[in-house]
Structure formats: C-alpha cells, structure tokens
Amino acid sequence: MPPALELRDVGKVYSGGVRAVDGVDLTLEAGEIHALCGENGAGKSTLAQIAAGKLAPSTGTVTGAERVGLVHQHFELVDRLRVWENVVLGREPRRGLRIDAAAARERVRALGTAYGLDVDPDAVVETLPVGIAQRVEILRELAREPRVLVLDEPTAVLAPVEIDALFATLRTLAASGTAILVITHKLQEVVTHATRVTVMRAGRVVLRAAVHDTSIDAIAHAMVGGDIPALAARATTVPAPAFEARGIAAGEGAHALRDASFAVRGGEIVGIAGVEGNGQSALTDAIAGILPYAGTMTLGGAALDGRDAAARIAAGIRTIPQDRQSEALVLDWSITDNAALGDHTRAPMRRGLAFDRGAARALATEIVARFDVRTPSIRTHVGALSGGNQQKVVVGRALAHDPALVIAYQPTRGIDVGAAALVQSRLIEARNAGAAVLLVSFELDEVLALSDRVLVLFRGAIAGTFERGAFDRARIGALMAGAS
Amino acid sequence: MLLTIAAAAMALAGANPLDGFAALLRGALGGTHQIGETLVATTSLLFPSLAVAFAFRAGLFNIGAEGQLVIGGLCAGLVGAALTVPGWIAIPLILFAGAFGGGAWGGIAGALRARFGGNEVIATLMLNIIAALLANYLVVGPLHAAGATGAETAGLPESSWLPILLPDTRLSIALLFGLALAGLLAFVFRRTVFGYALRAAGDAPEAAKRAGIDLPRTALLAMTLSGAIAGFGGATIVAGVLHRFNVALSPGYGFIAIAVALVGDLDPLWIVLAAFAFGILQSGSLTMQAFAHVPKDVVTFVEGLAILALATRRFVAPRGAAA
C-alpha cells in the first residue's frame, strides 16, 4: 500500500529570503499517529501548510496533499454560524435551490457518533467552549473524508482530561485507516500517544524515530540542539505580605472573573493554573488597572481600588502582558524608547517636561546586557527582533525597577527553550529578591515548575489551592476541567 | 513618478507638458509678487498640515482641519473687527481667538471620541459641514458687514493687520509663526514626555494603555490642540491676508493639508518643505492655466493622486508586507 502522504526534499523560502523549511522528507502511513516536534520557528507550521496543499513548496514534491485535512491552531470557524453550517460550508447538500439542512444535521450526527465527537449540530459556534469548538473544526475536516489529518498544536487550549479525549478520538480515526500528523511541543503527549516522531530544527529534520525507540530527553535534546539550560535556584525566602485581592469580579460573558480572593506575598510566585478563557485576562487586567472590577485590592497595605493604571505602576505593579507585540511593545520604536514605556512619567526618564533619552538608553543597555537580548544595537526597532528577544525586552523592562508585584501572563509563550529558561530564571530571581510574582500560564508544567503556590481557576472562580511540596498534578488537572 | 503622471495628464489635456511645468514655475516663483503669493499659500497650508500631523501622531485622523480653520478664522474676524485697541494688544488676542475657536471645534470631536468612543473621522467630517454652513449663515445674515458686497464680516482696523514680511507682497509674519510652530512641534515629539506619550498612544494604543497612558484624555487633548493649530492658521489668514473674515477664506486648505502632512511623513520639518511644494502648485496653477492652457484641475488631480498613493502606502502596504 502506498503511503498516505509523501513529502520529498521539500523546501520553502519566503520572500525576504527566510528559509523556513529546508530539504525535508516526510512519509505518513495509513493508521499511524505521527508527532512533529520542534521549537518555535523550526518550520513545523510551514510544513503543515505545505502538507495540506495550502502553501506551495519552493522546491521538492508532495504526493497526496489533495486528501489532507488541516485542523488549525487558531480555529477557522465562522463564529456566528451553527455547527452544521460550519461543517458543510462550501459543500452544502442541496435540495433544489435550498440547502438540505436535515441531511446536513444528520451527517454531523453520524460523524460525531462514529468518532466520539458529540456536538449539538444546532449550537452556534461562538457559544461553544474551546474544546467543543475544536471538535467542530475536526468534524469539518472529517466531513471531507481525508486520508490524512494534520493537527497544528491541537492541545494548546485543552485541559488534561480533554487532551486524553482528543487522543482517544485520534486513535479511533487511525484505527479506521486515517494517517494522523500531530504538531506539538508537549513531549509527554508524544511519548504517550504517538507511534512515530519527527523532530525539526531550523527548517531541517534532525531526528526521526519510532516512539518506543526514543525518550523525552532525546527528543528535547534534538529540538534544542543541546542541553536545556537549568533554571535559577530557588532561594529560601521569608514571604512578607504584599498583594491581597478580596472578592474580585471583573469582565463579562463567558470569560469573566466571577469571584477571586487570594494573596501574593513578597518572595513567592503564585501560579494560576487553568485553561485559557477561565477569567485569567479579566483578573490580570483588573490588577493592572485597565478593567473595572468589584471587590478590593491592596498592595503593601494600601488600597488600590479606584486607582488607574498609571497610579498602579507608580505603586510598583509591573506587567508582562500576554501579547507582547500589541500590548507591551511599540514595534516601530527602538529598544531605547520601548525600555522607557510605563516609566516615562518618572525620573530618571522624565526631567521637567523633557523626556531624557539618555536615561532611557542607559536602561536599554542594562536590559540588553542582563537579559542577553540579541540585537545589533539599542537603536534597533523591536519589530525587527525575534519573538524571544522581544519578550526579553518586555520582561527586562518589567523587572528593571525592583517591582513590588509582577504580573506575568504566559511569559514564555511562543519563544524558544533557551529564551524561556532565561525568562523563567529571571522571574525566580525577582522572587528571591523579594518581589511578589503572579504567574498566569496555560502550560501546567510551567506553573508547577515555578510556583510556590498554585491556584486553579475555573469559570472565573478559584477551584483549588495547592502549596509547593503538595502539588497533585492529577487533581489540579481534574479541577482545571471542572471536577468538583 | 508623480511628475510623469502630471506630464501625462497635461498631455491628455492637450498641452505641452514642458510648457505647462515652465508656466507653473513662472507663476509660482517668477518674481517677487509670485514668490510672495507662493509663500502666502505655503503659510496657509502649513498650519492645517501641522494640525493634521499632530492628531495623526496621536493615532487620530483629523479630517476636520478645514472646519477648524474656518471657525478659527470666524472667531478671529469677529474679535478683530470689534477690537479698537492698539495692534500689539489686538493681534495676540485675534490669534488667540482663532486658536480658541479651532480648539473648541476640534475638542468637540475629541470629546465625542473620549466619552463615547465616537469615530473622529465621521465627527470631524460632519463638523466641517456644520462649520461651513454656520459661517455662511452668520456672514450673510446677522454678521454681514454693512455695505459689503461679498459674504464677509466688517474689516479689521489697519493697526490689527499682521506686519508684512516681504515688501510689496501679501506675505505677513505669519510664515515665521508657522516655521516656529513646526520647530516647536518637532521638539515636542522628540524631546518631551508629552510627545512621547502622544506617539505611544498613536503607534500602539494597547501598549500605551497598559503603560498608564490615559487614551481618552489623550484623544481629547490631541484633537483640541490639533484644532487650535488649524484655528490659529485661520486667524493668520484673517489678520494677515484678508483683513476680515470671508466665507471664501479657504479654497480647501484643510483638505490639501492631509496630503501635505502625509507627503511630509508627519514630521513637522519635512511638512514645511511639503507645504512649500504644494504652495508652488497652488499659486502656479492659475498661470499655468492662463499661459500653457493646462486646466488647473490638473493640479487638483495630481494632489488627489498623491493622497491616494501615500494613503495606500501608509494603510495598505503594511498588511501586504506582513502576509
């Protein structure tokens, strides 16, 4: 039997000369679950687009792309349409001039039953939780009867229990003869669920193995091209009262924060574990002073309520926002001018009415040195830096002025392992030095690795609290998915 | 590029492009009188252009410079005609009245944006129409100067006229005010905390908000100051050129200003050069029409193309490049 999909010597050079994929061979056999791993920028997503025929390779050949279904990392669904409308979109069953809605509903139900993907065909997509919306995205691809299903980072938005359910579905699909390609950077999933693994680094394949012949360490080593740097050591701290929140409610709709009471003391990292969309954004925006809230907050004993973002920055609150490109940086500006943002109203950046660019330069130089920002100059526009280096600027700025409280929202999202380790180490050092750190991350491993205390956030409320030394991974995972 | 298109347009209009350009330049720079008129047009364009650029830097598209110019001119004309004090007192008051009127007019759009999130493009567009009709009504109706043939208010006493800069021309010291303002704005953008915050709000509003910059307040302030700059410009036309308010105060300076600001890349110092270039087009176009038989609409056509080309580069190209 010929392979379900075959890529031969495939290369892709983007305009601008970036070689995203370079001479890759990849063969998918019917019935296998194949994991594709690599760091950000390794070329995984580009390869997935080529495999699905959405992107033409610059060199090489692809055989079988016409029967490939692609499940996107950011779902490509029409939010305002119903589930069945999304599934049949573009190939609607017809009766005369009208869409045969009954037939379409029946098709969605039949597919759902066959693969354990139960969804109400009449639900409107925008009302569905992320995990269910993903099922719709998968159903839409399955309705086209693909021989190969490619999933780009499908578990990034799922709770542990949902991840298990997804892979159960994928195993059913594989058993029925579909070849599955799963792109992921979570190596535990690879060794648990996949049959074969291919690792890419800088556009090339650096490891190809059957999963039972390899290990997490070997895969990680191949991804990074060396050893993963160790994290900074945790010093023993004597936590002192710093930030306290009581009965905070903020935002509206499904992603609102309903009720959160907790403290973050100086010298400790409090991690918020939870699946995206359970109130994390509302919580951090409320603390930063850019979203109105009910309840009370204090920092160092002083009330924060009613104080705007500028006053909170002055009080020592610094944020590492979730989207560095739009929420943290001005991409057209130099590192120097970005370094001052947020502190531009205080000495040394402000001198009377004047903006002291010399002071900003000194700060930028310090950040570049301490955070190993790879840049030709501090005059370089931050938009020209890689994601990891942009994030180092953001984190460096947040930690530069001995903050009382640091809010770190997905501080290592989308950056390579080396940069991530550096960012995590600097957060630990800030904690060691007495800062209160509130960490929000959708990667449970990151939360567990860094936190002194873990709070589980589910549907806008705190569902559980765990102290370091008594972390119960299974229990935390269950609470993230809504167990009581 | 634009020159080539301009030449093609002249050829289409049935004229020799070389004759056309020669007549254009002769009309704009061919003598003291012509240079004076070109600099008058430059000055009249410079203020609204700086106004547009100022708002643009804060992320606001003020297409209401025309209305702010007219209201500023109207306020200056009313105050100027009513004052009988010596010039050194009257002139600052007249100019202030213009800035105040324009600032209030721009501030309305700013307040709508700050309070209700209203789109400033639509607000300023509507305010342009209101300004034109209001001015028209007032000068034809209640404020019409007794005995005047045109739609204009009573004249300013000669002591309140802006001093002439270039003898035997209509060029007043308003040009110096404009150059000083351009220098001041360049300094504000580059060297002050206020300019820094303004640019942050314009270049990355989400990041600015998280850095403690109050976006609604910035919008109100930027639109008010932008309007004040345009209104000041209207006052200089009244006190320096017309010596009264007339409904024909502006042949669309506030709209051409958008092109000037974009050609000048929103940089106050480049805008001075751009305003001069557009001043040449404005004042030379009549000569071109008279002697080379090129319709002066060719100038309008080329200006329109310039706006289209620059707006495309600024608003459309980045997305294409990112794809």
Count the DSSP helices of chain A: 16
CATH domain class name of the largest domain in chain A: Alpha Beta
Give the largest interface.
A-B, 33 and 20 residues
CATH top level class name of chain B: Mainly Alpha
Low-confidence parts of chain A:
none
Oligomer: heterodimer
- The named CATH superfamily of the largest domain in chain A: P-loop containing nucleotide triphosphate hydrolases
Q: What's the helix-strand series of chain B?
A: HHHHHHHHHHHHH
Helix content of chain B: over 70%
Per the principal axes of the C-alpha atoms, what is the gross shape of chain B? globular
Largest beta-sheet characterization of chain A: 6 strands, mixed
Low-confidence stretches of chain B: 317-323
Cα radius of gyration of chain A in angstroms: 24 Å
The name of the CATH architecture of the largest domain in chain A is 3-Layer(aba) Sandwich
Total individual domains of chain A: 3
**Whole-number mean pLDDT of chain A:** 90
- The rough form of chain A would be described as globular
In percent, how much strand structure appears in the residues of chain B?
Answer: under 5%
Describe the overall structure.
- The complex is a heterodimer of chains A (484) and B (323).
- The radius of gyration of chain A is 24 Å and the shape is globular.
- In chain A, the strands form 6 sheets. A 6-stranded mixed sheet of chain A has the order 5-8-9-3-10-11, with helices on both faces. A 6-stranded mixed sheet of chain A has the order 17-20-21-14-22-23, with helices on both faces. In chain A, strands 13-12-15-16 form a 4-stranded antiparallel sheet.
- With 484 residues, chain A is of the alpha/beta class.
- Chain A is 33% helix and 27% strand.
- Chain A has 3 domains: 5-224, Rossmann fold, CATH 3.40.50.300; 230-316 and 402-484, Rossmann fold, CATH 3.40.50; 324-400, no CATH class.
- Chain B is built from 13 helices and no strands.
- Chain B is globular.
- Chain B has a single domain (29-315), classed as ABC transporter involved in vitamin B12 uptake, BtuC (Orthogonal Bundle), CATH 1.10.3470.
- Chain B has 323 residues and is mainly alpha-helical.
- At the A-B interface, helix 9, helix 10 and strand 19 of A face helix 8 and helix 9 of B.
